[in-house]
Design goal:
The complex is a heterodimer of chains A (116) and B (116). In chain A, 0% of the residues lie in helices and 53% in strands. Chain A has no helices and eleven strands. In chain A, the strands form two sheets. In chain A, strands 2, 4, 5, 9, 10 and 11 form a six-stranded mixed sheet that branches. A five-stranded antiparallel sheet of chain A has the order 1-3-8-7-6, with no helix packed on it. By secondary structure, chain B is mainly beta. In chain B, strands 2, 4, 5, 6, 9, 12 and 13 form a seven-stranded mixed sheet that branches. In chain B, strands 1-3-8-7 form a four-stranded antiparallel sheet, with no helix packed on it. In chain B, a hairpin with a 3-residue loop joins β10 (96-97) and β11 (101-102). Classes of the chains: A mainly beta (116), B mainly beta (116). Chain A binds chain B through residues 30-31, 33, 35, 40-43, 45, 48, 86, 88, 90, 92, 95-106, 108-109, and chain B through 31, 33, 35, 37, 42-43, 45, 48, 50, 55-56, 58, 88, 90, 92, 96-110, 112.
């Protein structure tokens, strides 16, 4: 099956610093999402980005589908950015319901700690 | 618009018992997926339902089952609970189109199950 690798596994930053999180995947995908898991466990949607570049405030993401990787940029980090960031992909395969496998495959996450 | 709602938020069960978790998707979403998150295995896909039919299943034993109702609400059931079933169970909903697969997935707050 498809493999999703995230790096780095852990990242410690001083407040105000910038960071780049990387997600590599081993096969073609039709869906790629970035999530932030809050301390209570909920996965918060950051980006739905199968390809291209998107920005939302201090966060931006780029997916280069042909090279099978995605990057999440966090600028001017704040302590509230702390938590685990997950990349998840979905493959498109032939099937009766239009090709979707119907499931996201997650990386192991990057644990970000932002110190005041 | 209301998000994905999971109930209950917390559960403590005894080994050997069974448990039922509930998920109400975002209005208009017809696809509901379930995931298990543990410290050791990370986020793993359990199953996906679309229009009351299971269309994809992960690699979990038959003790894990689910269903979807005509209003797209879904339940998952775990029978004969084991200590290793202690986990955060997350539900996701998304729009699904025949021929296009799923779109962006949105997650509920999860149900934290503890088996003692």
């Amino acid at each position: 099956g498809i493999q999703v690798e995230q790096s780095p596994p852990d990242l410690i930053l001083q407040e105000g610093a910038n960071s780049t999180l990387r997600c590599n995947f081993s096969d073609s995908v039709n869906n790629l999402q970035w999530f932030h898991q809050n301390p209570w466990g909920q996965l918060i949607n950051l980006f739905y980005i199968p390809s291209g570049t998107k920005q939302n405030g201090r966060l931006s993401a780029t997916t280069v589908a042909t090279e099978r990787y995605s990057l999440l940029y966090i600028s001017s980090s704040q302590t509230t950015d702390s938590g685990v960031y997950f990349c998840a992909v979905e493959r498109l395969t032939p099937g009766n319901y239009g090709g979707s496998q119907g499931n996201l495959i997650f990386g192991k996450g990057t644990k970000l700690s932002v110190k005041p | 618009k209301a998000g994905v709602t999971q109930t209950p938020r917390y559960l403590i069960k005894t080994r050997g018992q069974q448990v039922t978790l509930s998920c109400s998707p975002i209005s208009g979403h017809r696809s509901v997926s379930w995931y298990q998150q543990t410290p050791g295995q990370g986020l793993q896909f359990l199953f996906e339902y679309f229009s009351e039919t299971q269309r994809n299943k992960g690699n979990f034993p038959g003790r894990f089952s689910g269903r979807q109702f005509s209003n797209s609400r879904s339940e998952m059931n775990v029978s004969t609970l084991e200590l290793g079933d202690s986990a955060l169970y997350l539900c996701a909903s998304s729009l699904a189109y025949k021929g296009m697969g799923n779109t962006e997935a949105f997650f509920g707050q999860g149900t934290r199950l503890t088996v003692v």
